[in-house]
Amino acid sequence: MTYETIIGIEIHCELKTRSKMFSGAPVTYGAAPNTAVNEIDLGHPGVLPSLNKTAVEKALQACMALNLTIDPLVRFDRKNYFYADLPKGFQITQQFYPIGKDGWLDIETDQGSRRIRINRLHMEEDTAKQYHLEDASWIDFNRAGVPLVEIVSEADLRSAQEAMAYVDKLRNILVYLDVTDGKMEEGSLRCDINISLRPEGTSTFGTKTEIKNINSISNIEKAVASEIARQTALLEAGEAVEQATRRYDDVAKTTVMMRKKEGSVDYKYFPEPNIPPIRLPQAWIESIRSKLPELPDARHARYKGLGLSDYDAGQLIQNKAISDFFDQLLPLVKSVKLAANWCLGDILANLSQDQLTHRTYALCLSELAAMINALADQTISSKQAKEIFGHLVEGKGYAETVKALNIVQVSDTSVLAALVEEVLNENPQSIVDYHAGKDRALGFLVGQLMKKSKGQANPALSSELLKAQLATRKPQ
Amino acid sequence: MDKHSPQYFKHLALQLRFELSDAEAQDIANEFGVLIDQLQLLEAIDTEQVEPMVYPFDEPTSFLREDEPNQVLTPQEALKNAPAQLNGFFVTKKVVV
């Protein structure tokens, strides 16, 4: 039997703010335990939460980019449960009135573009981080109260590839918005993936499992694919899928059981009495909308408009830091294509993501542009460019490097003409081959000429001169 | 399970992780009975045209706090209420949900 896969994804995303959702404690990552907490985060009696303006602004930006309808009356609710990661005994969330609902995101699939509906986006607070040891649990409340948005998709996704494409695209949009740093490996973006199978052509949902703790985009595809395979095998064998929360084991390449779901927990939601409804001024919402930065899709279209291929444009926008770098380089260069090639090649290979993100590299844009332009003019060869680049990344200037490396280019026609003469006399067979239509013969002759000039001949000019001479040496 | 029965309160207590004896559950059930009876008197009031109200004031506020870190406890203060502590962490019995 063939099965249809039904996937829905919940994404928890930490917002890039300086202070917490409801308290003035700092937001940190990797700080010593319990050094970024205050009375509100710890749920001390008598404290009152107050809502972070920047967190709301970032939630609004995410709503706008994901085509969600915004509710300008912000309301919060209490989700009550008793667990050590939540000292108040409840989490403040938006159960009844999410700030955004009914949006969508288009993803690219093998079958073309697919629109994935987004059910809701709501604001809430993160919980404490727990470390479970042999016989005790250690708790660090630094993360408690960090602003979060939860983004819930409809069950519109149908394959592991689509699940990965959805999270990847969503993450990229949020990074472009500067709403989050989107680091899955640090847990600032976490996804819970619900998967069920049903026989092709039927409409009732099968029993679902939820996969948690996936720490990278590429593991999403692997985790979902392995869970689909596991569920398919169970159904094929006539066994039932057990409703449970599972996690992906990167070593075993399969999902493993974390806990069974025993009925649904009653969280006894009710309106948060300590935060009265907050009306967001329409003018403020509109000013945020008018200042939305360029998003990946728009940037992709702009790059294609500049003449880049779909593939190159796609590669560039995938990494905001390199794309920003490319944008800075653009006004300085003669060749967009060469600039893109260098950004996606040597620059990505030589600068770390951290250097690119925080612009802490020594490479000077105008010096790099000078090199790319020399390459575009064929004043230097690609081989020379690579050598020069090695010095530019260390902060050296282009002119200075060219001088130091003794890179001179012979563009003197009389000198080159003599070399052309020599090369042709030494390679009579290539002349015959050239006239017999073998394209490689010209390349070979240029190569010989470059060798004779110790790499200093202007390749474009040499090629022209060779062609001119070859025309006069047509075999009888 | 009957709503507001002793069993119901025992179930709630379990979910909220505190102990409730049978006698205490019975006491609460009795008190709730009285409360519910009193609240039911309110049902005589006609609320047909009245919007439900959650907060004491109708007018929403517009206050949002500026995103400035301004209040942090020292780890010593933060850990003052910890049942046990080690290396700056709160330490509890191991409970994995």
**What helical percentage do the residues of chain A reach?**
25-40%
Please give the radius of gyration of chain B in angstroms: 22 Å
Structural class computed from helices and strand pairing of chain B = mainly alpha
Distance between the termini of chain B: 25 Å
Biggest pleated sheet of chain B:
2 strands, antiparallel
Assembly state (oligomeric): heterodimer
* Sequence of strands across the biggest β-sheet of chain B: 1-2
Uncertain runs of chain A: none
Average predicted confidence as pLDDT of chain B:
89
Rounded mean pLDDT score of chain A: 92
Beta-strand percentage range of chain B: 5-15%
Give the gist of this structure.
The complex is a heterodimer of chains A (476) and B (97). Chain A is 39% helix and 20% strand.
Can you describe what's shown?
The complex is a heterodimer of chains A (476) and B (97). Chain A has helices at residues 53-65, 160-176, 217-236, 282-290, 296-305, 310-318, 320-329, 336-350, 353-358, 365-376, 382-392, 398-404, 413-426, 428-435, 440-452, 459-472; strands at 3-14, 69-70, 73-74, 77-80, 90-93, 100-109, 112-125, 129-132, 136-140, 147-153, 189-199, 209-212, 244-249, 254-260, 270-271, 278-279. Chain A has 476 residues and is of the alpha+beta class. Chain A folds into 3 domains: 3-279, no CATH class; 294-404, no CATH class; 413-472, Arc Repressor Mutant, subunit A. In chain A, a hairpin with a 4-residue loop joins strand 13 and strand 14 (254-260). In chain A, helix 13 packs across helix 16. The longest helix of chain A has 20 residues, at 217-236. The mean pLDDT of chain A is 92. In chain B, 35% of the residues lie in helices and 7% in strands. Chain B has a two-stranded antiparallel sheet. Chain B is flat. The interface between A and B is large, with 52 and 37 residues.
